[in-house]
Specification:
Rossmann fold; 2 domains; six-stranded parallel sheet; 11 helices; 43% helix; binds beta-D-fucofuranose; ABC transporter substrate-binding protein
Length: 325
Amino acid sequence: MFKRILVLAASASLALTMTACGSDKDSGGSGSGSSKIVLGFSQVGAESGWRTANTKSIQASAGTAGIELKFSDAQQKQENQIAAIRSFIKQKVDVIGFSPVVVTGWDAVLKEAKAAKIPVVLTDRAVDSDPSLYVTFIGSDFVEEGKKAGQWLVDEYKDAKEPVNIIQLEGTVGSAPAIDRKKGFEEVIGSNPNLKVVASQSGDFTRAKGKEVMQALLKANKDVDVLFAHNDDMGLGAMQAIEEAGLTPGKDIKIVTIDAVKDGMTALSEGKFNYIVECSPLLGDQLMATVKKVKAGETVEKRIVTVETVFDQAKAKEALPTRQY
Ligand code: GYE
């Protein structure tokens, strides 16, 4: 019961935030009197360093592009995202952008946006809806990221004569990055029968959950060689659990993660992580350029893939001083 009241209160405050900033659509014109493009953006939440950097990028790029941004944080809940998108439709924004927390369950609301003739641009994460329901999807290739992480293990343990026991910390259940990173990773390590995933569980992309789940998994699995975490934050939480268990991260248990945010890169440069596959959160400029094109009636590519790299400990040391996020 108490939980239910909290949920109601949360959605009421969400609705309030959105009406509070929802009335200024025509007041944001530039000096020339022309009206600004209005973009309604529903963000997943603030679960990780990656997400915070992504939010900053979107806000900064909207400012530079002269686009009015109506921003809504869904606290990692699909129902909040659906409510936000419905509110954007009601407010008649020009374009809707969102990063879908999970892959499934978007058909109805995407059809509503289409019926209202409001184009939708997906950023960061994919959906399983019919592609005719959105204009484009801007983001990383998560299967490829999982493969790059797996390839590091294949190379690192190419001469291993004994089983290499791996713990995998998965991202949010049902999210595109969790599904695809797991798929790419397991496909590549499958080439070496010594590489064994002994436990695989979700840590919901957060540091706190990463630590909690790793504590439990370390108790249940005595001989762990490698941790593969689907993002830096879970890896950082797990790193604490490893240290508290009296083990040395980076040595007793090697750590491979995805993202390459500053805290992850710091751990890598200090030898506590062993490898990071980059996933860039800086999608703001591409999003704003796409929004402008869509508004001008120009055609855009159905899939816009982000360019990314990988980091070992030496490369992390080099890159850290100029890292933006
Ligand atoms: O890797 C993780 C975040 O969807 C790519 O979400 C994003 C992932 C990112 O919480 O840190």
